[in-house]
């Protein structure tokens, strides 16, 4: 874990970076501090209107009462999988990414003690699982797929872990984190 922390560097937004998405959201990248650290991911409920059944990080749109996107990510993680905000050691954030649903999503990286008991909010989360951090951060496990939609070329990333299909924004976030900490 200390190696990961020492290699994690905050990434400042790039000058001139432009987002067409003006709605803000944040996700927590929860790294569970086990002897072999893991990354916590959820599978969204099949009853949700958007992104039903997809693998995701705990997170969601910013509420007006949220003081920051860090607060948004921590609030959503508490609501979705019962991670107390006070238990998360926030390391920093990655640069925001644009989602296909019109949100600019800011990933917040946080360490979570291994004694937290996760409880899925059944309205939002069908299940949760952990992937070993070392495995998640292996760049070779991500495959790119170029698609053309709405007159624009997009590159999406795909990966698998056991029976879980990780793709889209979630895979892009993990891949970006892997690039951030790789030497």
UniProtKB/TrEMBL annotation:
<dbReference type="InterPro" id="IPR000086">
    <property type="entry name" value="NUDIX_hydrolase_dom"/>
</dbReference>
<dbReference type="InterPro" id="IPR045121">
    <property type="entry name" value="CoAse"/>
</dbReference>
<dbReference type="InterPro" id="IPR000059">
    <property type="entry name" value="NUDIX_hydrolase_NudL_CS"/>
</dbReference>
<feature type="domain" description="Nudix hydrolase">
    <location>
        <begin position="22"/>
        <end position="153"/>
    </location>
</feature>
<dbReference type="Pfam" id="PF00293">
    <property type="entry name" value="NUDIX"/>
</dbReference>
<dbReference type="InterPro" id="IPR015797">
    <property type="entry name" value="NUDIX_hydrolase-like_dom_sf"/>
</dbReference>
<keyword id="KW-0479">Metal-binding</keyword>
<keyword id="KW-0460">Magnesium</keyword>
<comment type="similarity">
    <text>Belongs to the Nudix hydrolase family. PCD1 subfamily.</text>
</comment>
<protein>
    <submittedName>
        <fullName>NUDIX domain protein</fullName>
    </submittedName>
</protein>
<keyword id="KW-0378">Hydrolase</keyword>
<keyword id="KW-0464">Manganese</keyword>
């Amino acid at each position: 874990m200390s190696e990961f922390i020492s290699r994690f560097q905050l990434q400042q937004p790039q000058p001139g970076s432009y987002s067409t998405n003006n709605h803000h959201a944040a996700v927590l990248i929860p790294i569970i501090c086990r002897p072999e650290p893991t990354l916590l991911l959820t599978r969204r409920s099949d009853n949700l209107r958007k992104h039903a059944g997809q693998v995701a990080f705990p997170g969601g749109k910013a509420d007006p009462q949220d003081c920051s996107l860090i607060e948004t990510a921590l609030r959503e993680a508490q609501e979705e999988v019962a991670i107390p905000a006070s238990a998360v050691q926030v390391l920093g954030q990655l640069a925001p990414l644009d989602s296909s649903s019109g949100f600019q999503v800011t990933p917040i990286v946080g360490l979570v003690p291994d004694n937290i008991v996760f409880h899925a909010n059944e309205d939002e989360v069908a299940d949760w699982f952990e992937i070993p951090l070392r495995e998640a951060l292996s760049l070779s496990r991500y495959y790119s797929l170029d698609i053309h939609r709405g007159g624009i070329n997009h590159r999406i990333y795909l990966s698998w872990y056991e029976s879980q299909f990780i793709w889209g924004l979630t895979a892009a976030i993990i891949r970006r984190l892997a690039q951030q900490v790789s030497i």
